[in-house]
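Table S2 (continued). Query chain:
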Amino acid sequence: MFDGRWREAVDRRTAPVGEALERHGVTADVLTATGLLSALATALAVASGHLHLAIGLLTLTGLHDLLDGPVAKAAGTVSVRGAFFDSVVDRVADAVVMGGVTWYLVSTHRGHLALLPLAVLAVTSLVSYQRAKAEALGLGGATGGLMERAERMVLLGAGFLSAALLVPDLWVLLGLTTLTAAGRFVRVWRSAEGPVRSAPAERGRPRWREGRVDSRWRAWREGRARGAEGTTASGFRWRARRGEAPLASRARRLRRARGQRARAGGSSGSVS
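Corresponding output:
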C-alpha cells in the first residue's frame, strides 16, 4: 500500500535528506548495516520488557531503511549488489525483532502464545518470497497489499504502546499479512495464465513473458549478457590472430624449402 500510493511523495521529500547525508560521507551500505544494529537493539529492548524504548528504536530502524535508497541515488551507487544487501538485511532484521517479541512472550505469558510471532514471521517471509520469485520469473502483480514492510513496522510499533495491546496487535498483524500474501498469490497466478503467443518465433512462449517487469536482477543479467558477448567476440579475435600466425609461418617454411631445393639443384648442376 505504501509503495503504491505514497512512495513518490516520500521519495521527493527524502531526496534532499539523502543528498545531505551523502555530502557528510554517509553511504547507503552504512545505513543498511546500522539499521540492522538498531533492529537488534529493538529486539533486546522488547525481550527485556522495555516496550516504550522499543518504539523509538523501531522507528530508528525504519528511518535507516527509508534513507538508504535516497543516499544511494544521491551518490550514484545504486546497484544490484546494494539492493541484494538491503533485501537480505531487511529479512534478518524482521527475524531479529520477532525473536525479541517471542522472548518477551515466553517470559510473560503461558501457553503457546510464543508461536504467534513465529507465525507472523513465516507469513512475512512468504510475502517477500512471492515478490522475489515473481520478479525472477518476469511476472507482475507481486507488489502492493495491506501489509508491506512499512505498514508492518507501524502496526508492530503500535503494539509496543502497551503490554496489553501486544498480543491482539500480533493477531491483527498475522491476519492482515496473511491477506496480503493471499492477494499477491492470486494476482501473480492470474498474470501467469492465458494463451501463448501466435508468432512462429515465439510459439510456446507464455504470455507473461510479453511484459517487461522491473526487476533488480534484470540489469545485472543484461550486463552479464553484454559482457559475455564482448568476451566471446574478443575470444574470436584472439583465436583469429593465433590462426594467422601458423599460416604465415607455414608459408615461410614452404618458401624456405623451395629455396633450399633450388640451391641444391644449382649445386648439383655445377658439379656435373
